[in-house]
Amino acid sequence: MLFITTGDRSDAPMRKYAQRRDSHLGKVLRVRPDGRDLEVWTLGHRNTQAMAFDPEGRLWIVEHGTKGGDELNLIGKGKNYGWPLVAYGEEYSGKPIPNAVTAKPGTEQPVYYWDPVIAPSGAQFYTGDAFPAWRGNLFVGDVREGSDGALYVVTDERNGELWKLAPRQRWGTTQ
């Protein structure tokens, strides 16, 4: 299956469409490999930045919230993740999000939310052998696992760099 995420276009008048099943804004969509049966898998998302499947095959997404509300969500078919009715942040102006609460019956809570926000940009479950203690953990940011089991991280500085995270080798040992 192919999963597609869509945001609400970061436009206040468009937010309501994240809760409407007749719109593709603010959704996780599922499509069969042959292109048939595009369906709304979940709704109520603001701005999904990454998705990843964990070792058990469960789908997770990381999404930008507003100021004070980036989220990590475990995705389940047919579930409503609340946006714009449920949010942990506030408008970038500092004003409250109109009519929003932090919990509402019939909506899912995030597994985790960040305040202050981290502006997530990617997600990777670690499955390698270089760091056995990290196996199964989720890394969020511009990070990817290499075929060598190392993690590769891109910095977002003006002169960005690519870093390789690998176990420290001790003198006289080989990998």
If you had to describe this structure to a student in words, what would you say it looks like?
This protein is mostly beta strands. It has strands at residues 2-5, 27-31, 39-43, 47-53, 59-64, 70-74, 112-114, 123-125, 138-140, 143-145, 151-154, 162-165.
Topology:
Layout lengths: L1 E4 L21 E5 L7 E5 L3 E7 L5 E6 L5 E5 L37 E3 L8 E3 L12 E3 L2 E3 L5 E4 L7 E4 L10
Antiparallel strand pairs: 1-2, 2-3, 4-5, 5-6, 6-7, 8-9, 10-11, 11-12
Descriptive terms for the model:
175 residues; mainly beta; 2 domains; 4-stranded antiparallel beta sheet; 3-stranded antiparallel beta sheet; 30% strand; globular
Helix tally equals 0
Shape: globular
Give the beta-strand count: 12
Radius of gyration, CA atoms, in whole angstroms: 18 Å
Count of discrete domains: 2
What percent of residues are in strands?
A: 25-35%
Mean pLDDT: 93
Give the spatial strand order of the biggest sheet. 4-5-6-7
SSE class: mainly beta
The largest sheet is: 4 strands, antiparallel
**Helical amount:** under 10%
What would a concise description of this structure say?
The chain has 175 residues and is mainly beta.
